[in-house]
Amino acid sequence: MTSSTGPIDATATSAWQDLSAHESTLTPDLRGWFEADPARAQRLTLQLADLHVDLSKNLVTDETLALLVRLADEVGLADRLQAQLTGEHINVTEDRAVLHTALRRPAGAEPRLVVDGQDVDADVQAELAKMYAFADRVRSGEWTGVTGERVRTVVNIGIGGSDLGPVMAYEALKPYVQDGLEVRFVSNIDPTDLAEKVKGLDPTTTLFIVASKTFGTLETLTNARLAREWLWTELAAAGVLEDSDDARTAAVAQHFVAVSTALDKVAAFGIDPANAFGFWDWVGGRYSVDSVIGTSLAIAIGPDGFRDFLAGFHAVDQHVATTPFAQNVPVLMGLLNVWYVNFLGAHTHAVLPYAQYLHRFPAYLQQLTMESNGKSVRWDGTPVTTQTGEVFWGEPGTNGQHAFYQLIHQGTRLIPADFIAVANPAHPLRDGDADVHALFLANYFAQTKALAFGKTADEVRAEGTAEEIVPARVFSGNRPTTSILAASLTPSVLGQLIALYEHITFVQGVVWGIDSFDQWGVELGKKLAMEIAPAVVGDADALAAQDPSTRSLISTYLALRS
């Protein structure tokens, strides 16, 4: 299959027809299935690098899984995966390769990856080496600010993939961050974001990273200019900045670096182009945390930690590329999502990490999955033939248990959920004789058990419950979950988790026939914002050109802004 080949309509395949017939006769019965098949958990538990993945509490039989794997074959998943890995332009609307997997290929990998006449491996390794060298300079104290002080705070300025990935990974890997270093993240154009993130910082020990491939992203460049003005103002107030353009330019060169390929714009801002780290148009923003977009992370956890991070990604890439679909974890999880969305009517998908350091992981997955698969046309421009995408959401346990789990347990909507945990905590605290992490994970195990098996009316009555409230205390069960368990949350394990969901997203996109790598839906609002901006600052003609609702809202805003 080449990038120019139109998608195979999944609904026209024999596997899809057989899945529809299968679904019409299937009555989910996790209790019964486990009782009839004591080996179910063992058979449906798979190993993905360091991740122990239990699929047994999903609403599937062996026949369901066989049909889903057949569907993958009939829509050409293997060919599409090969096309992606070898650099065919499967991002059709932008005529680009999709090579985030190349970012984590180890140095010296064979055969060499050459795409469009370019040695991709050499390019990637060169930028990584440059980033690692810079990270070492910051971590060692060799890189200093205008007063010769070492960097103690890094402020990453970006948005979307230039923010969500780095901040999620930094939060997840805090135990690996070098002592005396802190990273803060600015993304929102709301001036409150920048104001709060620079509050209390010493300008002489602060380094800003401006992450924007084109160095033209509205939010990022606005925040970068505000940060530059803050630096100048604070350095002057501290008496360490002369009142001259040359001094201000020199200060920017020592306190700002860029992740960008627009070197002319980088230089015009005042950043030395030698301190700009580049990446390529075949890296989508939401797939870029393992590129130099992760410069702030490389500084925080060090080059060795970042290499371990990349090795985790690569381990999953290898599994996907070499493992038969029937045992291929990301493929099976992607197909399960298709099963729930297209056959069982699910609209959302919960991701519930029982690991506080992963508290930003669901937010990261929101961009990865919904920006990728929120499409209503296929990659050849024809309308989709199925429902596509699902709303990803979640919070860490046990917080979520005291918030929204009620809906998952007893609501009317089917909400598949992924539960993620680690066996060894970074902080093995005890409450008297109690191991607090063990208590925490007791909740992790209990929730999936309760969701799967529920509680019958007879079981409720046996507890002596008054008959009139028995119905309120019945749990139907048959609420599907996947359990993911690792030994510890290391850089490698985090890379594995991210790559797992990248490939899950890819599998769903192939079944649905969509281009999972463009994001035109993001562009319209950005374009309209630029057109509306003059009206918001009082341009009467621009205001008159708006639709009645927008005009009314802006008029109200102008009246309130006094």
Automatic annotation (TrEMBL):
Cross-referenced InterPro entries: G6P_Isomerase, G6P_Isomerase_C, Phosphoglucose_isomerase_CS, SIS_dom_sf, SIS_PGI_1, SIS_PGI_2
Main location: cytoplasm
A single GO BP: glucose 6-phosphate metabolic process
Any matching Pfam family: PGI
Gene Ontology MF terms: carbohydrate derivative binding; glucose-6-phosphate isomerase activity; monosaccharide binding
GO cellular component term of the entry, any: cytosol
Organism for this UniProt entry: Cellulomonas gilvus (strain ATCC 13127 / NRRL B-14078)
Enzyme class: isomerase
UniProt gene name: pgi
Subcellular location as annotated: Cytoplasm
Keyword vocabulary terms for this entry: Cytoplasm, Gluconeogenesis, Glycolysis, Isomerase
Listed HAMAP family: G6P_isomerase
Name used for this protein in its record: Glucose-6-phosphate isomerase
EC number: 5.3.1.9
Family the UniProt entry places it in: Belongs to the GPI family.
Annotated pathway: Carbohydrate biosynthesis; gluconeogenesis; Carbohydrate degradation; glycolysis; D-glyceraldehyde 3-phosphate and glycerone phosphate from D-glucose: step 2/4
Bilayer-crossing regions: none
Catalytic reaction annotation: alpha-D-glucose 6-phosphate = beta-D-fructose 6-phosphate
Record: active site: 371 (proton donor), 402, 526
PROSITE patterns in alphabetical order: P_GLUCOSE_ISOMERASE_2, P_GLUCOSE_ISOMERASE_3
Biological function: Catalyzes the reversible isomerization of glucose-6-phosphate to fructose-6-phosphate.
